[in-house]
């Protein structure tokens, strides 16, 4: 709840900052976009927000977690996200469609360590990310309601395995760490409000699915980890 309230506070701060910036260079009566606001055109901006995700590991045999086939060990990840975006809109009547690209950082990480039986360990982390999405929306003057979807990629680090019963550390014979890049998909939606002819602000939800990472320990035992994330972001755009 604290994170959501913080994101909301940042959202309204963005809106206030944009209105203040526009007031410096325009007459007060022109701050608001006119009736029949035109959304077509290019834009750039930035976003910040909060995310939660999962790194869910499933034992594919009876040895990776030294228990049974299908045994799971889940890691919840969370953290703040941020980045920049750029895109272009086209408009036909009240329908707005376009393309948007994001580049940023998913600062989501988490650890789940269980020292008692079944004494499992897991950690997961997401880092740099980017996406390219198509947007489709309905405009009611200065308000745009939209959905989006496309391809996404991220940098990840995961470690899963058993805890050594003797010294309480990660068992090197029954664990593996993997890191690298993953490509997946993203879907989401949001609302965007025109504060003026040049500035818009948005509140957006986005889901990321980065697929499955395979793990194999030195004994040949296998597991797989599903990686996903949910984010809520606020953004500020400048229109060309």
TrEMBL record:
<feature type="domain" description="Outer membrane protein beta-barrel">
    <location>
        <begin position="39"/>
        <end position="240"/>
    </location>
</feature>
<feature type="signal peptide">
    <location>
        <begin position="1"/>
        <end position="20"/>
    </location>
</feature>
<keyword id="KW-0998">Cell outer membrane</keyword>
<keyword id="KW-0732">Signal</keyword>
<dbReference type="Pfam" id="PF13505">
    <property type="entry name" value="OMP_b-brl"/>
</dbReference>
<dbReference type="InterPro" id="IPR027385">
    <property type="entry name" value="Beta-barrel_OMP"/>
</dbReference>
<comment type="similarity">
    <text>Belongs to the Omp25/RopB family.</text>
</comment>
<protein>
    <submittedName>
        <fullName>Outer membrane immunogenic protein</fullName>
    </submittedName>
</protein>
<dbReference type="InterPro" id="IPR011250">
    <property type="entry name" value="OMP/PagP_B-barrel"/>
</dbReference>
<keyword id="KW-0472">Membrane</keyword>
<dbReference type="InterPro" id="IPR051692">
    <property type="entry name" value="OMP-like"/>
</dbReference>
